[in-house]
Amino acid sequence: MFSRGWGRLVLLTLLLVPGLHAQVPGVWQQATPARQEAADDPLGRSTPHGTVLGFIRAAGSGDYEQAASYLDTKQRGELAQKLAQQLQVILDRETSIDLGKLSRQPDGGLAGTQSPNRYLLCVASTSSGKVEINLDRVQRGENPPIWLFSQATLRLVPEIYENLGENSEIERHLPGWLNVTFLLVPIWKWCAGFISIPLTLLLGSWIGRLLRPLLQTLAGRASWDTQVDHAQRLVVPLRLVLFGILFLINASFSYALMARSVWHRMGTLLIILGVTWLAMRVVGIVSGLTLARLKRMQSSERIALAGLLGRLGQIAAFAIGVLVVLYTVGVNLTAALTGLGIGGLAVAFAAQKTLENLFGGIMIISDRPVRIGDACKVGDVSGNVVDIGLRSTRIRTPDRTIMTIPNGQLATMNVENYTLRDKFWFHPTIALSRQTTVDQMQTVLSEIRELFDKHPNVESETARVRFISIGKESQDVEIYAYVFAPDYNAFLATQEELLLKVLGIVESAGTALALPTQVTHIVQQSDGTAPRPKEPKEEVAARASDHRAATT
């Protein structure tokens, strides 16, 4: 692990050493080939992007004769080449251009503007003030129009170049030995590269430690001992952001415009990726701590909502990060979003069930027919809800198995929630014996009514006890009452108590519960013996004989 860590450190150091590629011509031209412009001009001057990129390539490789072809100047030969060399130094030293954002359209995206033939490339900071670097759209003869560095800009190039010193502002304040080059790179840049890497790693760890008290306050000290150290999960995204910042700083130290643009683009992408990753981690941590707090508070109606919002927050952070990355690399978001809209319709049809379950989950969480921990019955499935996700809801059955029901299906089913009952229905029917007298019946009715009136857990206003029917085997008494209880187990205890007291009332009244009866008639023969059972054939013949006798 030690050797691997040092190997990564050395590799990152070599990648981050400022200016290495700036001193070696053609390194980035070979490493990152540029996109070919769809243009009629052989030098790619049909668009502002092609003109600037072509000039940088030619000047970076030392071909100032070709670089002069990108200048709108009447000078020729060495004078034009010298002007191109001076413009290269100005662009490298005094400007900041994002090559990826330059227009790739033949009209420069200026159609309908006041200056459709002038493209503002950048603004150079000089000792005499700000100077605009412009491109002009020029048409020579019958050839298609091309973009060239404007004559107004080129007239200022010699003066700006003379005001530039040999060294940068930083190098002028450093000791002379730090400006000595080693492998074509100044020593001070080597030192900055080697020192910045470990400092960035340490800074990420320090920021993670500083965040621990804040997360501990959010989580609560009671649960902090059982929670994972969430601050440690933020260290890696923070380091990625810090490395992106380091890349941006390195871009300001590089001389070559191409190198500066590449470092700036890499730094921007690292920061976007780091911030996106960090946002997803923060949303996950906040969601986890919120769920833990809600579970301690036993706020079951908010647990599913907090979990859903946490997942949607992470998805939203990721989607925003992807869009920002696409915008940074130069993708036209208008066209991309239009394509996503068309593709989204196809995806919606293909993933109809998935979207149905997603919206079903949102409806379940918003309407809250069931909550996590509720005892319910869905269709023919009974049990306790253990989780409500984006796609499905899980119910633990009395057999201790997990039944998974898609949210789209659950949203259309009849759901019976037992936990949301405010009171329980007590509705037995007492079957008294047929021998119960009127006085005994009145005693039973009055004493059961008195029991319900005085019992603290029975809703006496709606309770009723009525003698409802006289059956063949019993005299039935209906009991109708609501019982207050916090849960089903408490209701069962109260129900048991009431039933025992009802049995005591029946016994004290001198009567009893009816028992099912069956009467069997036995006919004896004249000699006192029971008749012999008839055989099946004899029984059929006897029935036929009786039938003939009845008809005659």
Number of strands: 14
Q: What proportion of the residues form beta strands (DSSP E)?
A: 5-15%
- Give the spatial strand order of the biggest sheet: 9-8-7-6-10
* Helicity level: 40-55%
Distance between the termini: 114 Å
Q: Sketch the major β-sheet.
A: 5 strands, antiparallel
> Which descriptor suits the 3D outline?
elongated
The structure class reads alpha+beta
Structural description of this entry:
Among the domains are: 150 residues, no CATH class; 146 residues, no CATH class; 85 residues, Alpha-Beta Plaits. 53% of the residues lie in helices and 14% in strands. The strands form 4 sheets. Strands 9-8-7-6-10 form a 5-stranded antiparallel beta sheet. Strands 11, 12, 13 and 14 form a 4-stranded antiparallel beta sheet that branches. The chain has a 3-stranded antiparallel beta sheet with strand order 1-2-3. A hairpin with a 2-residue loop joins strand 1 and strand 2. Helix 9 runs antiparallel to helix 11, helix 11 packs antiparallel against helix 12 and helix 17 packs antiparallel against helix 18. It is elongated, with a radius of gyration of 45 Å. The N terminus is likely disordered.
